[in-house]
Amino acid sequence: MSTTPTTIIPIEDTSLTGFYKDMSVPEKRTFWACATGWTLDGMDFMIYPLVIGTIIQLWKVDAGTAGLAGTVTLLASALGGWGAGYLADRIGRVRTLQLTIIWFSFFSLLCAFAQNFDQLLICRALLGLGFGGEWAAGAVLMGETIRAQYRGRAVGSVQSGWAVGWGLAVLAQAALFSYLPPEQAWRWMFAIGALPALLVLYLRAYVKEPEVAAQTRAKVAAKGESPSILEIFQGPILKVTVLASLVSMGCQGGYYAITFWVPRFLTTERKLSIVSSTGYLAALIVGSFAGYLVGAWYADRFGRRNLFLVFSLGAIAVVAAYTQLPLSNEVLWVLGFPLGFFASGYFSGMGAFLTELYPTRLRGSGQGFCYNFGRGMGALFPFLVGYLSQTTTLANAICIFAVIAYLVFFAAAYALPETRGKVLHADA
Q: Is Transmembrane helix one of the keywords (predicted)?
């Protein structure tokens, strides 16, 4: 395998929106395709946490078992993400993205027809395979299509689509649960999750394979070789893989410990109804959206690594206050904004960071494995929070596991190098 010298370019224009006006048509098409994908991805995932209370009541399952469905979805998404990353190195980023979107849209629709919890568990697990694969393929596609000087802000801005999708899921919940009985409303929530399949039509028509990826696959094919999925565990790349996997585990474990159980925390320990809790979730979502945009700017202005260090400490402070202080509901509503801000904003740097850590021929495999190893390990947190909440308060359980996750995130990020401004090259 040949090596290519690392090229770092200075980032002169660091304004939040300055990148967009200078992007080419292919860059803009990829940007909007992936932004829409992230939006619908976020909507699909957040549907289950929003209906978990209804599932518990209708099918008489305990909190730990209900949390298991979230954990199984994320564990399956870890396998799907690693597999899709490897597939993206073999058949291309765009084609892999199309396959994963169709897959998770189909199984979201099947969730709407589940007749018991076991069937729902199986459908959520199969959905997870495509859910994880969509991020892996989309993140590499974005990272390789967007130029180095804009990569952090573009990929980070796309990540903000997750908050939009979360918001759409909350709005759908408020509307459906207002006009339909719970035993029907939750099914319509999952049916809406099939909408991402429509995005494939746009991908097929307008989004092309990144040139650096196409060139690398051509070079590899000319040599009669194919990248091995095990190369990310060999030589100096092994250290990168281990540390990047821990970064991914910490950031996602903290996020899932918070966002998966906060809706349940509001309706049980805070005694809010599903509809009245919508305003509290709205504050969290608006803070999340702002966090993604600020994080995108921060990643290009001060670096990906610095973003992780600052936001992980901020998340620890806010989640501790949100769950441990004797706050009124009014103050809790206000605190939802900084909680969403710090518990989400660091994701804006993840896609660009993982893209820049690996050579092109291994980028799909490396990025897909690290992020989805983190997702798989982070998948344990919804289950562990639910399990621990049977012996202590849900607030305590959320705080304990979120703080543990963010400490791992901080330590691993501190041990990795800064990658801001790195130019990607074709290699073989």
A: yes
